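FW: tagging you since you asked about this chain on Friday. Here's the raw sequence from the shared folder, copied in full. Didn't touch anything.
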Amino acid sequence: RRVKPWADASTSKAGLVEDISRLGEKSSTQLGKVDKQIIDREIEGLARLGEKSSVQISKIDIMVIDALIDRLATLGEHLSNFTGRFDLNVVDGIVNGVGTITQKAGKRLRPFQTGDVQTYGLVMMMGALFALVFLVLVFYGIISLT
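HL: got it, structure written out here
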């Protein structure tokens, strides 16, 4: 709408305000449609990018991470089998061997257990005398430890 030059100032200001208001409504409606289209297009593009990224990340997960975990699990299984065999054959073998030796030594020493305190004292004195004689022989160089 055109402002007439002969109209009074208040009428022309009111008309101008209405014209600006209508122009603003039209342009905001059109801008809203354009903005909505631009935003929708950008959101769709981001969604496609997110989908592609998700597919790529899942491929990395399947091909790299899962393969690494499978290899580590296989390594753990082999290590577990090795330590199990080591425990059964070496550690249990040593423990069982010590037990067998102790049992056989007990059977052979059983006749010497008389229950007589004097006999035990005599054996201790003979052991102490033997140790003293041995130390004297070493001290005077009769027996060499090297």
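FW: The chain has a mean pLDDT of 82.
HL: agreed, and The first helix runs from residue 9 to 109.
FW: great, closing this out.
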